[in-house]
Please model this.
Amino acid sequence: MDNRAQWGTRAGFILAAVGSAIGLGNIWRFPYIAYADGGGAFFLPYLIALLTAGIPILILEFTMGHKYRGSSPLTFARVSKKAEWLGWWQVLISFVISTYYAVIIGWALAYAFFSFKLSWGDDTGGFLMGDYLGAADTEIGTLGGIVPNVFIPLIIVWVITLGVLFKGVKKGIEAANRIFIPALVVLFMIIVVRALTLDGAEIGLNALFKPDWSRIGDSKVWIDAYGQIFFSLSIAFAIMITYSSYLPKKSDLTNNAFITGFSNSSFELLAGIGVFSALGFMAKASGVDISEVAADGVGLAFAVFPAIINEMPAFNEVFGFLFFTSLVLAGLSSLVSISETYIAAFQDKFNISRTKAVAIGGGLSALISILYATKGGLYLLDVVDHFVLSMGVGLSGLVEVILIAWVFRKVKSLQGHANELSDIRLGSWWVICLTVITPLLLGFMMIKNVYTDIIQPYGGYPVSFLVTYGWVALGLTLVAGFLFAARRWNNDVDAHNKEVS
Ligand code: PFF
Model:
């Protein structure tokens, strides 16, 4: 009866979940946040966030996907028809993220090739904004023509991603992650060992690990810790629910969540060591303080790292190639996971084949992504990312725990479901984390974020630009979520309910 696709092996599922979790966030976000939020002292809030929110919600999402056996909209529809919109909202947020995430992977691909000749020259920041992206003299809010060096790698990224997705869960997603993730770990280990042996590495490590306990009382530090855990574990993106809907009936859910959570954090730590060793080297080589070279995001990866690569004593090109290839691999496995959310949702709701769902969903995302392959694309990407990702994912995560824990009161039955199948038993700590700690913390975090955004327009952009591409884009995902939920199912949503209850 049940012809839902399935993972081939337990390791295959874990690799895919870890592949989704390990993304650009681990490499370019975690190290800087840890450094800026108290160094070694940051590990305390980080660990608390992992244990009180990250892993408990991961267990929740694994259990929901497994119990209700559906994409995010189908899973929430099976919780209650009144919750379906949330599944769609998360899927649509993921859809928007996929449109620009692909572009960043495209940049990394281009830079992997630039590494062969260190084409970025001495002024790496100028090269990025001017020669490469053509953003420097483009007015914010205008697009100003397609940039071929962004457009061509973007096409390659989509060909690989959609190629993987066309092949399905086992032969596509699982098989790709079996290659991507081990390859990523090996490449990244080489980078870390090389970085650790550079002159000045200890300066960077000191900056990353020296604890500044005075920061521990600052609410920003705690918000950053919870935000990083959410983002990094791909929670509330509809991803983990979708992936766990492909688990076989007999699957250990709790243990899988712990393995995924700890693997992701281990990689995060590894990235911190690698990135800060390299930054320490750079600070020493240019005779400046570490604070002058430390950065995150696009600036770290595409301006600071090329500068570090220029300075390296030997094998600069190889190091550059390995670094940018790592970004590509980490990014691709996350892009595959986020794209699978809407492909699965379309398949479930409209009863269409995978091939059709990939062609329509993936094709549309690829088409929209061309908007960011323009000269003004960077600004657009930055604003959409801030609102849809930082704001949207946090808000939808908050709504998720409130609906599951308080409105539909499903925590107890999900606890029973997970405990029937898993080695580790979920006790009352899990219930308390989900019903009290996470809603309170996430609620506080989102109120503060929304407030900050209102009193202080993000990134100094013109307010009209922020409203159109930030607030309106976020609002549209929500409205579209309700519209999708209002449509009739071409499939029988309740068929499974009878089976599980
Ligand atoms: N866990 C991912 C990361 O740390 O980069 C978050 C993510 C972003 C997942 C974008 C998927 C994605 F498309």
